[in-house]
Amino acid sequence: MYEQFKSTAEGIGAEVHRFKTDTETLEFILTFLNEEGVADTPHSYAVWADGPFLTDKNKKVFLQRINGLKFDVTRQAAADSRIGISDMSWALVDTGSLVADQTAIEQRLVSTLPAVHIAIVPTNNILPGKAELFTHITPQQARYIAFISGPSRTADIERVLTIGVHGPKRLIIVFVDAYKGGAQ
Amino acid sequence: MKSDFKRSIHTALASATLSGALSKFSETYKVNRAKAYEGIDFESLRTTIAERKAYAASHLEELSASFTRNAEALGAKVYKTNDPEKVKEYILRVAKENNVKSVVKSKSMASEEIHLNHFLEKNGISTRETDLGEWIIQLAGQRPSHMVLPAIHMTKEEVADLFSKEVNERLTSDIPRLVEVARTELRSKFLAADMGISGANIAVAETGSVVLATNEGNARMVTTLPKIHIALVGIEKLVEKFEDVVPILTALPRSATGQLLTSYVSIITGPVPNTDGSMKDLHIILMDNRRTEMANDPKFKQAMQCIRCGSCLNVCPIFRVVGGHVFGSVYTGGIGTILTAWFEELQNSEDIQGLCIQCGNCKEVCPGKLDIPDMIMEIRRRLVTEKGQPLIQKAIFSVVNNRRLFHAMLRAASIGGKPLTKGRYIRHLPLFLSNMTDGRSLPAIAMVPFRDRFHKIKQPKGLREKAAFYAGCLIDFAYPEMGEALITVLNKAGIEVTFPDAQTCCGAPARYSGVYEVAEKNAIDNIKAMLKDDVDYVISACPTCTVALARDFIATFESVGQVEWMPKARELAQKTIDFATLVKKLVDEGRLTLTEKNALGKITYHDSCHLKRTLKVCDEPRELLKKVGYEITEMYECDMCCGMGGSYSIKLPEISAPILKRKLTNIKNTGASIVAMDCPGCIMQIKGGFDQDGTKVEVKHTVELLAEQLRE
Question: What residues of chain A lie within 8 A of the CB of B243, using their CB?
Fold first, then answer.
């Protein structure tokens, strides 16, 4: 399932990574933020929306390592961030999509406004497609069901595919095998 | 046809941009669509969609009520109206009550339909389209030319000019840079906007949800950043159950752009939190604007099954030549013609309905199973019923309606046309008729029509079966040798051919012009003629005539309420068979042996619209040609219309010509010295094209190629 998903998602421009543990995942993300030059100045922030992955983590340690990382996701903070990080609950093999309940405003802000979106997904939550997905999530439970498939794209000028018109220019998907965050 | 309509066609044809972009897109679209549907049973998928959408269309009241109840229970405000003016008033009222200064919009064809932007701007509310294509056309002050690709008609240079003015900076035509400019410009608009307006791709009654699909991410911003969200939803978007979302979301992106899914899909059910912690002020407007009326019309209710993917435009041979703007309205292409006739008025579709060449491409790919060509025919019929037909056309059909006069005139034309003919072609016609021979010569009328030759043909005695040959006007009067060839082939298989003298025009020209009473009279005359003798088959070597005899007579009778002749029409339909299908059957039964005496070399085959898409015959002629020793090299777009379309090439020669040109090029590129086909109409078009083009490619009917081998 994972290999299939990876191939479809990469086909639509997503970057796909996979780690065994939460610790390895964290190391990858924090290193990435560092390398991308996240800093405590507007347009260089990173915003991380609260979610199951963070529940058992010590956020203070991250803040010490990365200047400009924010867990308090306001509209302004998100608008001034280069990178947004959030959980996404499911991955769909047939279309290479990620899905989550994004009713909470910070979930939408971090995955909409910054140029890069890092999405953390439990490897166990890879599903074949929409039909299976809708046995897990329905409009009765979630007011804003969001599908994200690759980065923002347009082909409105001369049919030339161009990435990153309004939403993120990069979608980085990080799968965690032994996902320890709160229950999904 | 109005002269400004003709003018807009000429403008479109002159624009190399347009035809360049559209041709390129239509070619890549076909490949991408096929790839996107790999592993999916398209027939079963579209059957489900058509069934679910048809159910919704016949329960609009119920579904609107249930949608309203469910969305309101969650805190949304739902407003339903038939009147576009009331939609605008409602939006303005909400805007005024909340002191809205600026609006950001994600793509909504329903808002285009009611010219909402103009209305809001006029009332002092700054309104920005945020879909890149929509923003471009908003800046250009134009209408979308395609419902999925609104700015497909514009070049990057034109976009650079527009953006340069907007940002007061001289920009180059580098596309990524232009997209970046749009990102920056519109980002500030998103963050400042007081209200977001979106459309909806689907509205789910049982949950009160609206579903939005975009690639750019603008709908996510429009529904997230401003505190007010208004979703303007045409009621054709309603479905009963949440599970109905699955087939529609499976088909929509695949059919629209050949994508597996758009980058973003949002399913919004009730108000969600705003950035300041308050709840969204969510308004959903269910707009009818004559959709209920359309759903109640037995011929047009299927138009409610449309999911607005635009695939009918993408495969249309006419659209890729003229683009969307000649349609003159918000909705373009085949579906646009139908929606214009309803959402505006029938009258407004008078010119544009004539653009449809009835090739049937759109019907094959439609994920909602709409029969667009058939609905356009119905528009024609209603226009003629309401308004009568143009005088010249009326004069022509009064002749076609009178077999003796019609045939006498065709005979006279064979002599009268003499000064214009050169060999077997008419290369130039004088005056206003001249564009009929622009890029294509017309066949000269045969000196001796088939009906006079028939009696001199000696057929073997004691053949076991009989077939009545329905020649059709072209074989009878222009290509009688095809009729002779048909007799050679059938005689070899033990079938005697009869030629009922009283047969006349099949009525297709009248029917395709919407003049059903003439088509009806033609049908009755032909039924009488073809059923006079007891025969085993009624055979035709013209797919359009075959379709007329096998299907259209019945359909015409149904439309005009002709019941008396219906049983006979069905009897005739039962017996009617096209040449290739009958001969293939005879070969399979061992009654006719086609052997390869020697390798005959490379040929290519052109699929005629009626044969391939109405009669579903495409392998049979190829197999027969291979059996006698031809090697088939397929041309690019072998089943794309040649631009003939019966009287289409006479009414709109300027559109027919570039379509023919493409076909000629595709034939030439195979390097084959012969192109075979099964329709005398296509032969007339393609043969005439090669005559003027000067290329030596033989254009032959399958019947001729088979008879040549059987005679030797």
Answer: 134
